[in-house]
Protein: Pseudaminic acid synthase
Amino acid sequence: MNNSITIYNKKIGKDHPPFIIAEMSGNHNQSLERALKIVEEAARAGVQALKIQTYTADTMTLNIDNKDDFFISDEKSLWKGNSLYKLYQQAYTPWEWHRPIFEKCKELDIIAFSTPFDSTAVDFLEELDVPCYKIASFENTDIPLIKKIAQTGKPMIISTGMATVAELDETVQIARQYGCNELVLLKCTSTYPASPENTNISTIPHMEKLFGCQVGLSDHTMGNGVAVGSVALGATVIEKHFTLSRADGGVDSTFSLEPHEMSQLVIETERVWKSLGEISYGPTDTEKSSLKYRRSLYISEDLKAGDVLTMDNIRAIRPGYGMPTKYLEIILGKKIKVDVEKGQPLNWDIVI
Structure:
């Protein structure tokens, strides 16, 4: 397994802070001005990258709305009542917007890349010299698309939603066979929004071991808890949908983070990453000064040589400069060699 991979000028791996991707998707609401504002807010929140999606309604589906195959009727769907074609017309990012969005990202020192949904999108993105590619969950079994992207030789980030182990194995093998040497797999649940109960982030370390690559989470749950928790399980990449305000509406706004929430995601995932450390017992260097606050045995009354130690004249208290408390039962009933004052640490030198 690669210890880390590099996308443009940023490292992805366990020795580096989590790589946070803000997914714009259709949250620009067909306004380039809003799209550029989303870039600005993503950069301000501290993300490493911003991702868009490259398709048109015509490259995604057929313009048919009178057949069930092309109509969203699922009562639980956020997009119920739309034809696929009309949904993609609302959500797509105009291709002429890609360059200004990417230039704004470069200006603000965050990585810009995209999810292509067909070969024409890959050709277009190659003209813009994107540094990497994302494969959406619904395309992770599109082998011709995987081949074409792999042949660019650029890093690939693949969402694994709905894919079986066998399907993922085929996808990973094809990606590597056709030239992709830097690969990230993202655990993903392809419901919108997703529930924590159906997210199964315990899969993350298993997936890392199985495929020997960087792993992470494409998260559609509400809030940040699941994403933060995934870092403790080895996630080095986190992708969350991002909007200026959920109240503004939009095709993905319901399960998207707002700027202050994305900022917290960046902060909290880095805190978890820093806390992982290594297997460690005993005091750390920073804890050593606290050892003095352990309990130990102290003289609690003025005593004369020959006095007997009892529970009335010794106590287990802080600080920790006296005899360890585990010797309390052994020391009871023994005599003192010399005069001692209240507050003196008890030690073997003064006991007969």
Q: What stands out?
A: The chain has two domains: 7-55+92-276, 288-350. The first strand starts at residue 4 and ends at 7. The chain is about 30% helix and 15% strand. Residues 179 and 196 are 35 Å apart (CA to CA).
